[in-house]
Amino acid sequence: MTPGLMATTPGGLLLVLAVVVPVIGILALWLVRWRAIEWVAIATLAINLVVSLATLQAVRASDASLVYLVGGWMPPLGLALRADGIAAVMMVMTGAIVAVTALYARGQFGFDPHGPERRRPMVFWTMLLAITGALNLIFVGEDLFNLYVALELLTFAAVPLVSLDGSRDTLAAALRYLVFALAGSVLYLLGVAVVYGAYGTLDLVVLAEMRGADGALLLAIALMTAGLIAKTALFPLHLWLPPAHAGAPAAASAILSALVVKGSFFLILGLWFDLLPPGLGAIGANGLGMLGAGAVIVGSVLALRQERLKLLVAYSTVAQIGYLFLVFPLATGSEAASPFASLAWTGGVLQLLAHAFAKAAMFMAAGLVYEAIGHDRIAGFKGLGRIAPITVLTMTLASVSLMGLPPSGGFSAKWLMLSAALGEGAWWWAVVILAGGLLAAGYVFRILVPAFSTPEAPAERKYPVAPVRECAALVLAVIAILIGFLPLAPWPLLAIGRIAQVSP
Amino acid sequence: MSLAPIDAATLYGLTGAVLVGIGLYGIVLHEGFIRRLLAFNLLGGGVFLLFGVIARRGAGAGFSGDPVPQALVITGVVVAFCATALAITLIERLAAEDDANDGDGSS
Question: Which InterPro entries match (chain B) (predicted)?
Answer without folding.
Answer: CPA3_antiporter_subunitC (IPR050601), NUOK/Mnh_C1-like (IPR039428)
